[in-house]
Amino acid sequence: MKEILYDSAVMGHHSEYISHIVEYLSDNATDKQYYFVVSEELPAKFPDIVKKSESISNIHWVFIPLLEISKLYSQNIITRSFSELKLVSRYAKELKAQHVHLLYFNIFQLALGFIRPKFTISGILFLQFYRMSTKSFRERVKYYRKYMTTKLYVRNSKLKKIFLLNDDKTVKYLNKEFKTDKFRMLPDPIPALTPAEGFDLRQHYKIEESRKVLLHIGSLGDRKGTFEIIESAALIAEELQSQICILLVGKAGNLETEKQIADGINKVSAKTKVKILWDNQFVPNDVMKSLFNQSDVVLMPYKNAEASSGILGHAMDSKTPVIATGSGLLKDIVLGYGAGALIDKVTEASIADAIGTINLSEYNATAVERFVQEHSSQRFVRTILAFQKF
């Protein structure tokens, strides 16, 4: 049997997921033939992924020309949905594949509401509608648009499984609401990273031993609560300020946001004893692992709390408590596993209050360890590939 694993993007979790699958297939024999249909950028940006599959006879690579991907990405979301499904269908026909795994299902939702291809499909869905806010008119329109799209594609007989990351509650709702069993929970894999040898966070950033290190890492900006974190430094109780260091590590989404972050740090630093540092780069994985291991708290007051977060997984793997948004999927995971403190609203005042009152002794290390074990890359791959007929 021939199966395609398709993803036209390569950065972030896209390459990570492909790497997990390749590594699993390298260690587990199967008579299926797997064709990775991916961007031609992947071997240049992540040569190790392709290299570790060289001796595996049932792993094959098919690279999509960049020009073709650029044409797809230049289209509006409706046109692209149909165009990209047409592209996938072309590869499935050429390779004589019976099943296609869409590693990013979102873009195909609309097209699959109307088109039934000759092959069967499974896919990973990010940011579905169930946990979306419906407070404003615009939010309600978006909610019901996604609802109707889901209602259309779930009737597609060629669509066999739709995986949702870490969200068993939403899986149960969607299956009941649409009278199906197609939705399945998928454990978002936590990569097993090795810390950088000899790296000392406090020495590297010149942070006093007397200060607790509060880490805010990843892509920085408004939706991550970055500005509120910076502003919170001035609202932390004065007697605690000299005991706190807020460490930002990561890049802003654009130059305007970068300037806002830099200006905000300069402005707030002038009126607080909290040390605020910004390492304006994406650090290597081994350094990132060291940062998670050696920080006291991870700050993740994300404004979009409906989705899972790789940062939460890294923090839990390093046994480092988090301060996170008290709503959505993040709330369910943090609360359910005793992984840290929650804030009701993403404001500088609520973040400052959480920083001042978080009780690290309440951290449930046993439950957190169970979460980490349940979210191994092996379980992630076994769930996707199933190794059974759909």
Describe this structure in words.
By secondary structure, the chain is an alpha/beta fold. It folds into two domains: 2-189 and 376-385, 3-Layer(aba) Sandwich (Rossmann fold); 201-374, Rossmann fold. The chain is built from 18 helices and 13 strands. The strands form two sheets. Strands 3-2-1-4-5-6-7 form a seven-stranded parallel β-sheet, with helices on both faces. A six-stranded parallel β-sheet has the order 10-9-8-11-12-13, with helices on both faces. Helix 8 links the parallel strand 6 and strand 7. Helix 10 runs parallel beside helix 12 and helix 10 crosses helix 16 (348-357). It is globular and about 65 Å long. 39% of the residues are buried.
SSE layout:
Elements: E1 2-7, H1 13-27, E2 33-39, H2 42-45, H3 47-51, E3 59-64, H4 66-73, H5 77-95, E4 99-102, H6 109-112, E5 120-125, H7 137-153, E6 159-165, H8 168-177, E7 183-186, H9 201-205, E8 212-217, H10 226-232, H11 238-241, E9 244-249, H12 255-269, E10 275-279, H13 285-294, E11 297-300, H14 310-317, E12 322-325, H15 328-337, E13 340-343, H16 348-357, H17 365-374, H18 377-385
Parallel strand pairs: 1-2, 1-4, 2-3, 4-5, 5-6, 6-7, 8-9, 8-11, 9-10, 11-12, 12-13
